[in-house]
Structures are given as C-alpha cells and as structure tokens.
Specification:
Blueprint (H helix, E strand, L loop, with lengths): L1 H12 L4 H21 L1 H4 L5 E2 L5 E2 L2 E2 L2 H24 L2 H11 L1 H6 L4 H27 L1 E2 L6 H14 L4 H17 L7 H15 L7 H12 L10
Antiparallel strand pairs: 1-4, 2-3
C-alpha cells in the first residue's frame, strides 16, 4: 500500500526538483497526518488504533523484546542486502547516474523520470515495512506518532551520516539514536541542535561522515587488492 501511495505521489511530485520536491513530500506527509487525526470514524483520531496483534511467522508469534530485536535485526540485514544488490545492479547504476547528472543520463538513453519514480516507490515500500514493524512492536499506532519532527530527524540521520552511502546512513542513525539519550537534559532543544548539525554538515562536510566518495574509495581499494595508491579517482 505504501508503494502504491509512493507511486501516486511521485507521478506529480517528480515534475519538481531539489528543494521544491522536498517541500512537496514533507507537505504531503503533514496533510496525511492531519487527515488521519481528524478522520475519527476510521482512525479514532488522536486516540489511534490500539490492540494491534503481534505478528505470526510460520506459526511463531513474536512476543517480548528479544523476539522483536531479532526481527529488527533480520529486517536490517535484509534491507542492507537489498540495497547493496540494488546499487550494484544496472538499475542502481542508472539511478546513481540520474542523481549525479540528469542531462548526461538522458544523453546515454536513461530516462530520469522512470528511475526517480522507481526510487520513490522502493523507498515507500521499505517505509511501509518498518511502519508495520513499529505498530506491531508497540501494539498501538497513532497519527500523532508521525509528526514533522520525525521526518526531520530521519533526514538529519542521512545528511549527517552521508548521502549516497549505506554505511553513512547506518552511522547517522546510530549517532542520532544514542546522542539524544546522552543529552536528555537538552531535550527541549533537540530540533534546534539537529538543525544546527545539518547546517554545519552542509557547509563544512556536505558529504557527511561517510559519504559516497568514501564508498567509491573503498571500491577502488578492493579492485586494487587492498592497496591504497593515494588517490580516490
């Protein structure tokens, strides 16, 4: 279902680029949240949907934190495996070409709109998978759990860790999960700190802690048999 909604949103939204695309997607998220908050006949509004049953897999019911921990670990491994395979596939290479230079991509026969839309759908599907896991783990879900701050936190994780890098995304998520726990006394200023972090990273380290160039450097090292020749190109 999230993949379908991603498709329907992507078709008109991908006519835009850059900041305008980000504004549209964030705005759509707020619209959906407000609709669910006020559509009490279906969603019970802010009260949410309680008593969501625990998922069953091959007759085994996930109960307790340990079971959900291993389920989260399996989902993480599957996601990383899928993304690695996608990046190294022809489709993934086409997506990266579109990301780096749409004009060059069109010149060699790649359709930017097609691959942008595919990226939109794939990301929506994974968001839906994790959303299902989240609701099952808490046995409860409410529109108030998906506020603007949540989107900004996730965006900050990616920017901080490194755009275009799987390792960077994991690193950014780890840092921004641990950091708030260590700085609980600054909880009222969390979004201010996240915003300042994003500004700092975009100015002084736009590729993040582990960006795409770091990933390319590692690939060249592997191709060279683990020898660093002192060049990233």
């Amino acid at each position: 279902m999230t993949g379908i909604f991603g498709l329907f949103l992507g078709i008109p939204a991908l006519r835009l680029r850059g900041d305008y695309l980000a504004i549209v997607t964030l705005g759509f998220g707020e619209i959906v949240r407000l609709v669910f908050v006020n559509w009490k006949a279906v969603t019970r509004g802010p009260a949410g949907l309680p008593s969501i049953p625990a998922p069953e897999i091959v007759g085994f019911t996930l109960n307790g934190r340990t079971a959900f921990y291993y389920m989260a670990l399996i989902l993480t491994v599957f996601t990383v495996f899928f993304m690695v395979k996608l990046i190294n596939s022809g489709v993934g290479m086409a997506m990266q070409t579109v990301k780096n230079d749409e004009i060059a991509a069109e010149a060699i026969g790649i359709q930017p709109r097609k691959y942008k839309l595919l990226a939109f759908v794939i990301s929506s599907v994974f968001a839906g998978i994790i959303g299902c896991f989240y609701a099952s783990y808490l046995s409860y879900v409410s529109p108030t759990a998906f506020v603007y701050n949540t989107s900004m936190t996730i965006l900050t994780m990616v920017v901080l860790g490194g755009l275009g890098s799987i390792v960077g995304s994991i690193l950014g998520a780890t840092i921004l999960t641990i950091l708030p726990e260590m700085l609980r006394f600054l909880s009222d200023y969390r979004m201010l700190i996240f915003g300042a972090l994003m500004v700092f990273m975009m100015i002084y380290k736009p590729e993040g802690f582990w960006g795409a160039s770091k990933r390319r450097k590692n690939i060249y090292k592997i191709n060279a048999g683990g020898t660093d020749h002192g060049s990233d190109t």
